[in-house]
Specification:
The complex is a heterodimer. Chain A is α/β, with parallel strands linked by helices. Chain A is built from five helices and five strands; from the N terminus they run αβαβαβαββα. Chain B folds into four domains: about 1-165, no CATH class; about 210-335 and about 350-415, no CATH class; about 425-505 and about 620-663, no CATH class; about 520-620. Chain B is built from 23 helices and nine strands. The chains are: A alpha/beta, B alpha+beta.
Chain lengths: ~200, ~675
């Protein structure tokens, strides 16, 4: 091999190395982008609830004036959904039509905890948007919320016939959550099978 | 009606951005002067349109127009005026409008003040800027439109998160965005340079003032956020390594690296490929911050209401911006001509070390922030990465950075005499040693590591002063000679020394507040006394007070030291109604040695109240140091050399950024 072609080969190799180095940021970013995409479908907020499979914590709370009182004993005998709501919570309005449909179609009884709310405002809110709740308990101070492990509004709990919490949903219930998570869970709870949640 | 005008203007801005993002690019490619000339008026028109849109939305907030859904969700008629206005950007949708407004502001700034840029290059910069705007305008209009009506309108709104109802936080987002978005200019300059295939000293001189302006704004924004956390959250912390704090800190770190590497490009015409990459990465990290906050990928106190469609949209846009520019980089960067050579021990070498350390620090913050996501994606485990990780990895990287910071400016370009530079720093070394010994003698508790770190802070400050004195030949030449030198010293040199000294001041604050803080938590009844760090606090009792949209318990503490009166500390625990939430207003009394900090909490039932008392030595130096750094940056921005790129004089681009900041 002549000197010229050897140095040409060396220059070519150098250039290739330059190009490879210049590609490194792009390759690294592709990996990061992949993780970020996956991250969109992960739910970092949904820490597995310590209450899953455990009896729903007891409570003794007053009703909203003019509405039926929601008691701890109501949770036994039937698979039910317990929803934490408040009139000041914007996301509650997002899931509200869905809860209305669940109640109207008699899919299952829906009970409500009116959380850290003003009762007047809550009644006005229910009057305006509709009342999907068969029974409501007023958790003015949020103490029962602490027992139930509530850390944001809205949250929803699926309770089985024996009064055990079998599924917890954080944030507004959307169409997709209902179809992919809650409906299968309801069916499993009714059939007495283990609930995947 | 104004809302509709704003909505229409916003949609028109998208159309203008589409034109501005394509035709000038084509024109620059073909050398068509007509299409190239389109860029400038388009950029100005876009600013006008977005400003009208922003004004329309602001008007709806100011008049509490509850027929606008965004106003209903985030405002309340009983809110003070300042927070009605800051409510415009205190939510996801509105903050995007502010984001686009600042983007348009910077774009119009380049159009109006970048007269000395070659027209084709300027057209490319403005086109890239417009393409970024297209993404954000489309994101806003199609997934997060703030101009939608709520019919029928409710009687009142839902209110703004009470934690955000605070003067410090009212201005935190605008400054942060000025920083984030300001880096878009560096990005646009980098992409335009890659398209042209040419990076030279002139390029660096154009890009530096914009980067510096963005850096100053980002520094102010981060400092404001940290200060707010300090006095509002009531626990006296000033930095939590929260994912979103980190998201704003990463572009700051890489932006700082960019500022330094651009100097090398400007002065020595080398390190070009790396500088271009840094410009791309800095803005990419700004976008990553936006993505993290708005997609709900990471949990944070800052997370906006999350929605998967928004997440997918902004991720797609983010990938397009970053992958597109990195692919362009991979294609064009190898063709950039390498510049001058230099010895490892030289000014260039020092700046490379600075870049290595800052980039590594940025990398550790990146890893720590995204590690929970990586792990969750790979294994499904949920973890959170907290301060111990960051203190252990980030801290050790800052020590050599700050130690070298005093030496770097003493080195000459190309090849330097390290021993000579160190010899000239002997005064700084003596001062640092003295400070270390004094701290060791005085501190009888706290971690031993804090003592040499205190010395390091003094080293950084005196090192900058010695460097300044060297330039002025202070004490070596007659005083009149030094004074005349001071008059002729470029402002950029003053700015650098000031900024470096500010870093040292900040380190002192960080060390003092972390190592020697004292705290006491107890239940106090009226008349009871507690002693902390030599101060005695007498609880004078609490009383209920009413605010415009909250009720509060106000507790006061009489503070004395050695029998002498220091003052009355008044703290409030506020309960807001819409939405229901409690916040605490800490009572803070700055003293020369540090802050006295008192917080009143829940009533304990027997007439007593839970109270927290702190003594935080040197804590205000943290923000003081940050402000000195910003002052240094602004001084440097006002330097004539930065404004006079080529024969034509141009007015300070800083003026644009600052005018925006004042709004």
């Amino acid at each position: 091999m002549s000197n010229v072609s050897r140095s040409a080969a060396a220059a070519g190799w150098l250039r290739l190395r330059c190009i490879l180095w210049a590609l490194v940021p792009l390759v690294l970013f592709a990996a990061v982008g992949g993780f970020l995409y996956q991250g969109l479908y992960l739910k970092p907020r949904e820490l597995p609830s310590a209450l899953l499979g455990r009896p729903a914590p007891a409570f003794d709370l007053p009703p909203l004036p003019g509405k039926q009182q929601f008691r701890h004993a109501d949770l036994k005998g039937e698979v039910s959904l317990v929803n934490i709501f408040a009139s000041w919570c914007a996301a509650c309005r997002v899931e509200h039509p869905l809860l209305m449909r669940l109640a109207e179609d008699k899919v299952l009884p829906v009970y409500g905890f009116n959380y850290k709310d003003d009762s007047e405002a809550a009644l006005g809110w229910l009057k305006r948007f509709g009342d999907p709740y068969g029974r409501i308990a007023v958790d003015r101070t949020g103490r029962t919320g602490i027992d139930w492990g509530v850390y944001g509004v809205p949250e929803s709990f699926l309770v089985d016939r024996e009064g055990r919490i079998v599924c917890k949903h954080i944030g507004p219930v959307m169409e997709r959550d209902l179809a992919e998570k809650l409906r299968p869970a309801i069916a499993a709870a009714r059939a007495g099978q283990p609930v995947k949640c | 009606m104004w809302v509709e005008v704003g909505h229409f203007a916003f949609a028109m801005a998208l159309v203008v951005a589409l034109v501005q993002g394509t035709l000038p690019l084509l024109g620059a490619h073909r050398g068509d002067a007509g299409l190239i000339a389109l860029a400038r008026p388009a950029a100005v028109l876009q600013l006008v349109l977005v400003a009208v849109a922003f004004a329309g939305l602001t008007q709806a907030y100011v008049t509490s127009d509850f027929s606008v859904l965004n106003v209903v969700n985030n405002s309340h008629s009983a809110k003070p005026m300042l927070y009605k206005i800051s409510g415009v950007w205190g939510n996801h949708e509105g903050s995007l409008v502010l984001w686009v407004l600042i983007l348009a502001l910077f774009g119009a700034g380049v159009a109006l003040f970048g007269r000395n840029l070659p027209p084709a290059f300027r057209a490319r910069v403005l086109a890239v800027q417009a393409l970024i705007a297209v993404g954000f305008l489309a994101f806003s209009l199609f997934t997060s439109n703030p101009f939608l009506r709520a019919l029928p309108p409710p009687a009142d709104g839902n209110g703004l998160n009470p934690l955000l109802q605070d003067p410090g936080l009212a201005f935190h987002p605008p400054f942060l965005y000025l920083g984030y978005v300001g880096f878009s200019i560096a990005y646009s300059f980098a992409v335009a340079a890659l398209l042209e295939g040419r990076v030279d000293a002139a390029w660096a001189r154009w890009v530096r003032p914009w980067t510096l302006a963005a850096w100053c704004a980002l520094t102010v924004g981060i400092a404001l956020g940290s200060w707010w956390a300090y006095y509002e959250l009531g626990w006296g912390g000033w930095w939590f390594w929260d994912p979103v704090e980190n998201a704003s800190f990463m572009p700051w770190l890489s932006g700082t690296a960019l500022l330094h590497s651009a100097i090398v490009v400007e002065k020595r015409d080398t390190l070009k490929s790396w500088t271009i990459l840094l410009a791309i990465l800095t803005f990419s990290l700004s976008l990553l911050g936006t993505f993290l906050v708005r997609s709900g990928v990471l949990t944070s106190v800052h997370a906006f209401a999350t929605d998967p469609t928004r997440g997918v949209f902004i991720l797609a846009f983010f990938v397009l911006v970053v992958a597109g520019s990195l692919a362009l980089y991979a294609w064009r960067a190898p063709a950039l001509k390498p510049g001058g050579l230099f010895q490892p021990v030289s000014r260039e070498g020092a700046l490379v070390l600075n870049n290595l350390l800052l980039a590594t620090a940025c990398g550790t913050v990146f890893l720590g922030t995204l590690y929970p996501l990586f792990l969750d994606a790979l294994t499904g485990d949920k973890v959170s990465v907290g301060p111990p990780f960051f203190n252990l990895t980030f801290g050790p990287l800052m020590v050599p950075l700050i130690a070298a910071m005093a030496v770097g400016p003493m080195l000459s370009w190309k090849r330097a005499d390290l021993a000579g530079a160190l010899a000239r720093l002997k005064f700084a070394f003596a001062a640092a040693l003295l400070a270390t010994l004094a701290a060791a003698a005085l501190a009888h508790r706290g971690p031993w590591l804090a003592i040499p770190l205190l010395g390091l802070g003094v080293w950084a400050i005196t090192g900058s002063l010695v460097e300044l004195a060297e330039r002025l030949k202070l004490f070596r030449a007659p005083l009149s000679d030094s004074l005349s030198r001071a008059g002729h010293l470029p402002r950029a040199a003053w700015g650098m020394s000031l900024a470096h000294a500010g870093m040292g001041v900040m380190l002192l604050g960080v060390v003092g507040a972390s190592a020697w803080q004292q705290e006491q938590l107890q239940v106090m009844r009226p008349g009871q006394q507690a002693t902390l760090a030599g101060y005695s606090f007498t609880f004078r009792g609490a009383r209920p007070v009413q605010g415009p949209n909250y009720s509060a318990i106000e507790g006061s503490f009489q503070v004395t030291r050695d029998g002498r009166e220091v003052g009355l500390l008044v703290s409030q625990s506020r309960t807001f109604r819409n939405p229901p939430m409690q916040t605490s207003e800490a009572a803070i009394r700055p003293r020369p040695s540090g802050d006295l900090y008192a917080v009143i909490g829940e009533p304990a039932g027997d007439g007593g109240y839970a109270t927290r008392l702190y003594h935080k030595p040197l804590v205000h130096w943290i923000w003081g140091g940050a402000m000195i750094m910003v002052l240094g940056g602004l001084l440097s921005l006002s330097d004539r050399r930065l404004r006079v790129g080529s024969p034509v004089r141009r007015r300070a681009p800083a003026g644009v950024a600052l005018a925006g900041a004042g709004d």
